[in-house]
């Protein structure tokens, strides 16, 4: 067997919650800055330098808050090890999930009946998809640290082939070419 390395990066689409966080950050920055600078001018105390420094610091924190909402996910397979990393603001990386493909108890498309039956069980749901609505979604189930997890990712046929290679009985995927051969 030759070594396998596949990776895919998907940008997460911002939803209403992320937009709310961005707007709230900007509004709170403006409110605090106006309040702080108006107090300085009303009291007529010479704190202008300190209030400007605090305003600049708050502007930087607001910038960091807005950037931290934007994230991407990197899916990577090295041989049978599947990992998901979250990349925040294209600079900071955090490992979200790591497991062997051999440990998956089920793997199928989200629009299949397998997904509905998996959700009926008591599972913890982790959505690491792009939320774009255009790409098909894939899921797999795994038990880690006595917790049943259901992981949702964006579909990539290269990953499915690797999942099939290491755990063929647990992958439920029918390609369009296989369907046309049966007809």
Short descriptors:
9 strands; 4-stranded antiparallel β-sheet; disordered C terminus; 5-stranded mixed β-sheet; single chain; 183 residues; alpha+beta; 41% helix; elongated
> Rough shape?
elongated
Helix-strand pattern, N to C? EHHEEEEHEEEHEH
- The helix content, as a percent range, equals 40-55%
> Order of strands side by side in the largest beta sheet?
6-8-7-5-9
The count of β-strands is 9
* Helix/strand/pairing category: alpha+beta
Number of helices: 5
Quote the beta fraction.
25-35%
The biggest beta sheet is recorded as: 5 strands, mixed
- Rg: 23 Å
Spans of at least 5 consecutive residues whose pLDDT stays below 50 are 176-183
Q: Summarize model confidence as the mean pLDDT.
A: 85
- Distance between the ends: 33 Å
What does this structure look like?
The chain has 183 residues and is α+β, with helices and mostly antiparallel strands. It is built from 5 helices and 9 strands; from the N terminus they run βααββββαβββαβα. A hairpin with a 3-residue loop joins strand 3 and strand 4. Helix 1 (16-43) runs antiparallel to helix 2 (48-69). It starts with a strand and ends with a helix. Residues 176-183 have low confidence and may be disordered.
Give the topology.
Elements (H helix, E strand, L loop, with lengths): L4 E7 L4 H28 L4 H22 L1 E8 L2 E8 L3 E9 L5 E4 L3 H8 L3 E4 L9 E8 L2 E8 L2 H10 L4 E2 L3 H7 L1
Parallel strand pairs: 5-9, 6-8
Antiparallel strand pairs: 1-2, 2-3, 3-4, 5-7, 7-8
Helix pairs in contact: 1-2
């Amino acid at each position: 067997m030759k070594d396998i390395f596949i990776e895919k990066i998907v940008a997460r689409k911002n939803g209403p919650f992320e937009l709310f966080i961005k707007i709230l950050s900007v509004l709170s920055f403006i409110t605090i800055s106006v309040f702080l600078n108006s107090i300085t001018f009303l009291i007529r105390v010479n704190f202008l330098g300190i209030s400007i420094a605090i305003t600049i610091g708050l502007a930087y924190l607001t910038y960091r808050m807005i950037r931290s909402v934007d994230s991407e996910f990197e899916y990577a397979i090295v041989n049978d090890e599947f990992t998901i990393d979250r990349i925040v603001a294209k600079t900071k990386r955090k490992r979200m999930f790591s497991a062997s493909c051999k440990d998956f108890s089920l793997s199928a498309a989200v629009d299949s009946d397998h997904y509905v039956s998996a959700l009926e069980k008591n599972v913890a749901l982790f959505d690491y998809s792009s939320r774009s609505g255009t790409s098909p979604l894939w899921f797999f189930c795994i038990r880690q640290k006595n917790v049943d997890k259901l992981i949702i990712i964006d579909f990539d046929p290269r990953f499915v082939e690797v999942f099939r290679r290491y755990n063929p009985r647990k992958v439920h995927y029918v390609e369009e070419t296989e369907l046309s051969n049966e007809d």
